[in-house]
Design a protein that fits this description.
The protein is α+β, with helices and mostly antiparallel strands and 178 residues long. 39% of the residues lie in helices and 34% in strands. It has a single domain, classed as Gcn5-related N-acetyltransferase (GNAT) (Aminopeptidase, 3-Layer(aba) Sandwich), CATH 3.40.630. It contains 6 helices and 8 strands; from the N terminus they run E-E-H-H-H-E-E-E-H-E-H-E-E-H. A 5-stranded antiparallel beta sheet has the order 1-2-3-4-5, with helices on both faces. Helix 1 packs across helix 3 and helix 4 packs across helix 5.
């Protein structure tokens, strides 16, 4: 089921097959570097991720989606929205992870922009954030391309992060400038 499309990408619900591909990616230390600890075995990973994302969708009506190329259906990563607790406040995060073999092609930025636009059109949120590990330069560039600027620094899950943010007013100004 397609949620929305961009020029080159289709975002849809994640399947167990997508999660199996993600598991392979997170086994790679370079991919996992900013994502956290080593993953559990494949079957447990798929079961836990499926339960996590399904519960998030049940609670909020939105979440992480599969990102695939429209021209050939190749799964290139995940992108979507996550409700996060940041410094004691609920925040809606635009989050993304693209497979290393697809880095440098603009897929993360395109998917993140589409997710940002979907969120502001669909949800009554005053702003969106992206939590970026303090050393993750590539992801910070995606957030900046998405119209976000550094809002504050924080410690999230015991790791220093920068919180990038775009307000609804800033998004509307970007749209008007096009």
């Amino acid at each position: 089921m397609t949620v929305f499309e961009t020029a080159r990408l289709r975002l849809r619900r994640l399947t167990d097959d997508d999660l199996a591909v993600l598991h392979g990616w997170v086994l790679n230390p370079e991919f996992r570097r900013f994502l956290g600890p080593y993953p559990p075995p494949l079957e447990q990973f798929v079961r836990e991720q499926r339960a996590r994302w399904d519960e998030h969708f049940r609670r909020h009506g939105w979440g992480q989606w599969a990102v695939e190329r429209k021209d050939d259906g190749t799964f290139v990563g995940r992108c979507g929205l996550i409700m996060q607790q940041v410094d004691g406040m609920d925040e809606v995060e635009v989050a993304y992870a693209i497979g290393e073999q697809y880095w440098g092609r603009g897929y993360a930025a395109e998917a993140a922009r589409g997710t940002r636009d979907w969120a502001f059109r669909t949800l009554p949120v005053p702003h969106l954030i992206s939590l970026i590990h303090a050393d993750n330069v590539r992801s910070a560039r995606v957030a900046q391309t998405n119209g976000m600027t550094v809002w504050k620094d924080t410690v999230f899950r015991d790791i220093p992060h920068r919180v990038y943010r775009i307000t609804r007013g800033e998004w509307e100004a970007l749209r008007a400038a096009r």
